[in-house]
Prior knowledge:
Residues 3-96 form the Pyrroline-5-carboxylate reductase catalytic N-terminal domain. One of its GO terms (molecular function) is pyrroline-5-carboxylate reductase activity. The chain contains 11 helices and 8 strands. Helix 4 packs parallel to helix 11 (248-270) and helix 7 packs antiparallel against helix 8. The model has no long low-confidence stretch (mean pLDDT 95). Helix 6 (138-149) links the parallel strand 7 and strand 8 (153-156). An 8-stranded mixed sheet has the order 3-2-1-4-5-6-7-8. The chain is α/β, with parallel strands linked by helices. It is globular. The protein starts with a strand and ends in a 5-residue tail after the last helix.
Amino acid sequence: xxxGFIGTGNMGTILIExxxxxxxxxxxxxxxxxxxxxxxxxxxxxxxxxQLAETPExxxxxxxxxxxxxKPLDIYPFLSKxxxxxxxxxxxxxxxSPIRVDQIEQIVPCQTARIIPSIxxxxxxxxxxxxxxxxxxxxxxxxxxxxxKGISLPVQIEERITRxxxxxxxxxxxxxxYLVQRFIDAAVAETNISHAEATVLSKxxxxxxxxxxxxxxxxxxxxxxxxCVKGGVTGEGIKALDEGIGDMFHRLFRSTHTKFEEDLSxxxxxxxxxx
Length: 275
C-alpha cells in the first residue's frame, strides 16, 4: 500500500519515523513532500528508500492513503486547490482536531478519516485517536487500524470528545513533562541534589511508574495508598500537592477548550456549508 505525507513538520515527521522504525511501513512505499522541501529532504537522507516528491500533486497521484499534516487554517485552501485530484479509492487523513471529517467530505470525493497522534507514538506506545468519515470503507478502516497498531493503541472516538481526548492523549505528554520539570527544578532549589541527578532519578521513576500501570499491578488510587504510609513523608507531600493544585486542571481544560472554540470559529468561516 502506497502512503503519502504532505507536510513533514513535527508531527508528520514523528509519524513517518515511527511507522518506518516499527516496520509498520516499508520506506519504499512512502512518498513525502513539504512546502519547504529541505525539511522533507532531511527525512530522505535519513531513510534513502523514501520517495521524495517535488509537489503535493505527485504525492496525491501515487498514494492510497494520504496524510495531510498541515496547520488547520491551511487545510481548506489546500483542498480547494487539489480536491479534483482525489478519487473514491483513496483515503485522505487529517491529523488536526478542529476540522471534522464531514467538513472534509464536503470538498473531496475520496474517503476521509482523522487521526490524532501522540508524541508517545514515536516510542511505539500510547494512543492514536481515530474518527472515520461516513465514506470510509471497511477495507480502508482495517488498513488504517493495522498501520496504527504498529506504533500505538488505536482508539476510535466520537466527535463530542475530540478536544478532551486530544488534551489527554496528544497534549498530555507536554503537560506532564512540564510538571515533572517543575518538580525537578524545585528539588534542585530546595535541596543539595544536582539537576543532572534529579533528572535521572525522575526519568527512571516515570518509566517505572508507567510499567507498573501497564502491567496493572496497581490503579492510580491504589498506588497512592501503597506508597502513603500513615503519618509518613509521602502523605505530607500529597497534602502539599492537594493544597497547591486547587482547580489547576479544571482551568487547564477550560483554557484548551476556549482556544478550541476560537479555532472552530475560524474554521467555520472557511467551511460555510458546515454547522
